[in-house]
Amino acid sequence: MTKQRSVSVSRQINAPAEVIFDILADPSRHAEIDGSGTVRGAKLDDPERLKMGSKFGMKMKIVVPYDMRSTVVEFEENRRIAWAHFGKHRWRYELEPNDEGTLVTETFDWSTALSPQFIELAGYPKKHPANMEKTLERLDAVATSDAAAS
What we know:
Strand content: 35-45%
Radius of gyration: 15 Å
Strand order of the largest sheet: 1-7-6-5-4-3-2
Order of helices and strands: EHHEEEEEEHH
Shape: globular
Structural class: alpha+beta
Helix content: 25-40%
Oligomer: single chain
CATH superfamily: START domain
């Protein structure tokens, strides 16, 4: 039996998938929606809008400031976007439009990680869902505000 190496959190957001996806595909807005408190801002050389294969950097802080460079590894316009950094684990967002807006699922997937055992020993699979819930809550507030303004 294969061990599951992903955790997901979903939230219904009363905004169109296009509005939500535009936020996720804009690295300059990632700090605005981050629920972990670790994303501080985008690097100045980031693309305006992400697409498959885009490379982008984030200014981060966990105890000390550092920079993280990621690559978009999954992309389906208005439906799915995922990125991975040097450790190869992925952060994925999947959007499912429905009558009430969009169901958004955020997934931390370490099945592709270079060292999945390290991720498990560090406790990230248990720590991340609470932060993911906060991220989706913030994404909800930003997306519904953007949708109302347009």
